[in-house]
Write a structure and sequence with these properties.
Layout: H1 2-8, H2 10-26, H3 32-47, H4 54-81, H5 87-90, E1 101-109, E2 112-117, E3 120-125, E4 135-142, E5 145-149
Parallel strand pairs: 3-5
Antiparallel strand pairs: 1-2, 1-4, 2-3, 4-5
């Protein structure tokens, strides 16, 4: 009889809801939060006397949690990730290299040489004969190889 009272009590559901919401900070995945939401709703409904039996509480908890999980999870993920999550798929210049000025540090031989961009050394290709010390402009890139030119794009 004591177990039934503990499970029926609104305090159990409210505490369970808070624990599940807090667990989302330690194991993120945006799943426990919806079960926490379900537990908080059941706790509130039990507190106000809307539902009383253990079976009704468990059923309400399951229904609210699963509906919230499947209906709200996708929307909440969009809010948390923002609209820029797929930017690299849409924009091949995801690093913002095109148009940047670089300095040639190794003479280009057969169209291949080295440049510095933002203080880092990069492999580069160019159809222009570039000499160490000159400046060039990034016109494209293929992965980690920059394509540079004397002419600004």
């Amino acid at each position: 009889m004591v177990e039934s009272t503990i499970l029926n009590g609104y305090a159990f559901w409210l505490l369970l809801g808070l624990v599940l919401l807090a667990s989302e900070f330690f194991v993120p995945g945006l799943i426990a939060a919806f079960f926490g939401l379900g537990a908080l709703v059941v706790g509130a409904l039990t507190l106000f006397g809307v539902i009383e039996s253990t079976g009704a509480q468990l059923t309400c908890f399951a229904v609210i949690s699963l509906v919230a999980l499947f209906v709200l999870r996708r929307q909440c993920q969009r809010w948390l990730q923002g609209t820029e999550s797929d930017r690299s798929m849409k924009d091949m210049d995801d690093a913002g290299f095109i148009g940047e000025r670089v300095q040639v540090i190794v003479d280009f031989v057969d169209g291949v040489g080295d440049v510095t961009l933002n203080g880092a050394k990069w492999d580069a290709e160019s159809s222009d004969p570039l000499i160490a010390g000159e400046h060039a402009w990034v016109i494209d890139h293929n992965g980690i190889v920059l394509k540079v030119s004397r002419q600004r794009p």
